[in-house]
Amino acid sequence: MQVSRRTILAAMALGASTFGAQAQSLADFYKGKTVEMLIGYATGGSNDTYARMIAQHMGKHIPGNPTVIVRNMPGAGSFLAVNQIFNVSPKEGTVIGLGAPTIALDEKLGTQGVRFKTAELNWIGRVSPLINIVFMWKSSPIKSVADAQKSEATLGGTGAGSTVSIYPLVMNNVLGTKFKLVMGYKGSNEAMLALERGEVEGHSTAYEAVRTAKPSWLKDGSINIIAQLGLKRIKELPDVPTAIELAQTDEQRKILTAIMAASEIGISFFTTPKTPADRVEALRKAYDETMKDPAFMGDLERLQMGLDPMSGADVQKLVADVASISPELLEKVRAAYPEPGKN
Which of 144, 117, 113 is nearest to 338 (CA)? Predict the structure, then answer.
């Protein structure tokens, strides 16, 4: 069947006019509005720093150029913020959130305090993977994971649902380390101050958090990094083993891999469930453009912070993949995963 040139041109004009109307509608919606970026972490850490830089530049890439502001809501390992976004925030694309990368696994495991469904959140994009490290102060007798398997070592802890607390306890349960968490610090910055004061022997947090807040520690030997908590070694720490590499059995490796996969979700942002699809796509597009914005990239470079972005659609798939863990492996992960409030 032949289609006339006039029909083709008419269809193209209709498509262009529909796209133009949609873009205008989005601009009309966001113009003069404030988009809130709700962060499930305390101020001053790497998550907060990334969020504030993105907020500074993202507004100009959203149709209508709304103002983007940051509000911190730390607590319960970021669950307070994620619960707020899922259950309370308006479902209209005016709230963007950042929570712990383990929230999908927490939901799957039925962790106490979870009142959200991660697959129903609309994921906007990732700025960087989140590789945690375990490190000890230079005066600590714990110089390796093998030492930590023999002797107790105190680590500064934050919320029960945070990777700061989860990962060391997983190492205890799977690898037999004897880390004892001293809980109650409001964020990694506070826990690192406690480390300097001698209140604890070590800490576990994102490598970026240390590089941002305490870069001198990585240069002057103040700390000894004994493990990194990701699927593979990062280029900055080629001689530090991953927890997975320290596994002694195939079962241990599978359990640790399932848990450490959260490192790939990393520092990822999302908006509310039931947000209109066109606004989700507009936020994803604005986020992608921000990741390539020379001014944003320049800010990252000045602070020596990494950038390894992932699209919102790809993060959405990563989150959905958590649901594919086999029931057999899930039970083993459940046994290794710490219960809130228990060391």
Answer: 113
Q: For the chain, which residues make up each domain, given as ranges? A: 5-128+265-326, 132-262
Which residues, in sequence order, are bridge partners of residue 133? 205, 228
Superfamily classification of domain 132-262 = Periplasmic binding protein-like II (3.40.190.10)
**Per-residue pLDDT for 12 more than 60?**
no
Percent of the chain whose pLDDT exceeds 70: 91
Q: What is the CA radius of gyration of the chain?
A: 22
DSSP characters over 312-336: HHHHHHHHHHGGGS-HHHHHHHHHH
Structure-token match 């107790």, residue found: 152
Residues 194 and 200: beta-carbon distance below 8 Å: yes
Whole-model pTM: value is: 0.77
In this predicted structure, the answer to whether residue 108 has a pLDDT above a threshold of 70 is: yes
* One-letter-per-residue 3-state SS of 101-147: CCHHHHHHHCCCCCCCCHHHCEEEEEEECCCEEEEEECCCCCCCHHH
Tell me which CATH homologous superfamily contains domain 5-128+265-326.
Bordetella uptake gene, domain 1 (3.40.190.150)
Q: How confident is the model at residue 111 (pLDDT cuts 50, 70, 90)?
A: confident
Question: Would the CATH topology of 5-128+265-326 be identical to that of 132-262?
Answer: yes
